[in-house]
Q: What sequence folds into this?
């Protein structure tokens, strides 16, 4: 459910609960039971449908009613013509009960928890994944497209990352400002809290919360570290839009991080060796750290970012808003541990 505005009404459902309807600002409406079960949605999403028929209400439907009469359900709603609809199917909805068995690995996947192993030998940073295990540490996508697989590993001194990304216009970013490449095309990044004692439910960054971005810039890949909260940061930047801003206390390129990139067809590989000293990360085996991994996808010209796709954080669809794109929300990250 997205952009819900209010409850239009509530009506009897079964002997355990009522049913109520929510309207949404994209023209959709949603049905739930009063004991918390989602039933269905109705009407057309104006963002993806251009059919101008009776089931396209339009955006920002602020009013309406929902109720039951003579055993049937009705809603009165619309933009312009204020129509009355009979809502069918609710009476046929039935509860089901039973047991579901889940494994520890399924629970960890749902909670975005992973374990990263130390490497017996350092990964060779050459844009190939041949020396990595066949099974990646993580995979994710956006509705079956923009697939990403990620290999990860540690040794005593480095963090190793190997991204393989499905992209129709692979590894293009023509941004002129190396501090805002996340807004102008293809990048990969790591967001991590280096202080494992920080509140895991924090919605704002604290000292130790950082973002490492790898992106193409002037014909070569660069690694940029954003330290959002760093007292005495030497290169603070205020990322602004016409209505808000977000200050990052220190932004700098990492000289010791080694990066290799290889493109092929509609995909690319980015490998990186990041010294733990540059991240300010001291790894303790078994200690959980808040972290997330992500990819930004740009237009074919490499002028603007059109999609942000992350492993754990689902609230990354915002683009065209530089302060919103640079903000960190550690509460929505996953959890990694090293063994």
A:
């Amino acid at each position: 459910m997205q952009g819900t505005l209010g409850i239009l009404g509530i009506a009897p459902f079964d002997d355990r609960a009522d049913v109520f309807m929510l309207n949404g600002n994209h023209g959709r409406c949603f049905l739930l039971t009063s004991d918390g079960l989602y039933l269905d949605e109705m009407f057309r999403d104006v963002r993806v449908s251009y059919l101008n028929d009776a089931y396209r209400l339009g955006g920002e439907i602020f009013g309406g009613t929902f109720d039951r009469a003579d055993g049937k359900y009705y809603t009165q709603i619309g933009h312009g013509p204020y129509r009355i609809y009979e809502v069918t199917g609710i009476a046929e909805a039935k509860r089901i009960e039973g047991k579901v068995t889940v494994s520890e690995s399924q629970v960890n996947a749902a909670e975005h928890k992973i374990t990263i192993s130390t490497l017996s030998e350092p990964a060779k940073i050459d844009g190939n994944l041949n020396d990595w295990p066949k099974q990646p540490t993580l995979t994710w996508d956006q509705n079956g497209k923009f697939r990403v697989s990620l290999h990860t590993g540690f040794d005593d001194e480095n963090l190793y990352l190997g991204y393989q990304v499905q992209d129709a216009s692979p590894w293009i970013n023509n941004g002129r400002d190396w501090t805002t490449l996340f807004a102008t095309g293809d990048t990969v990044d790591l967001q991590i809290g280096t202080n494992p004692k920080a509140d895991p439910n924090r919605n704002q960054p604290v000292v130790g919360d950082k973002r490492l971005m790898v992106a193409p810039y002037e014909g070569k890949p660069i690694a940029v570290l954003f330290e959002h909260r760093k007292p005495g940061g030497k290169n603070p930047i205020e990322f602004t839009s016409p209505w808000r801003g977000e200050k990052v206390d220190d932004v700098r390129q990492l000289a010791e991080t080694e990066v290799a990139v290889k493109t092929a067809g509609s995909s690319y590989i980015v490998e990186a060796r990041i010294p733990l000293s540059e991240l300010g990360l001291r790894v303790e085996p078994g200690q959980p750290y808040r972290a997330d991994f992500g990819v930004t996808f740009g237009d074919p010209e490499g002028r603007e970012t059109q999609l942000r796709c992350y492993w754990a954080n689902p609230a990354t669809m915002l683009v065209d808003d530089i302060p919103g794109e640079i903000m960190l929300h550690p509460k929505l990250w996953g959890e990694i541990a090293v063994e």
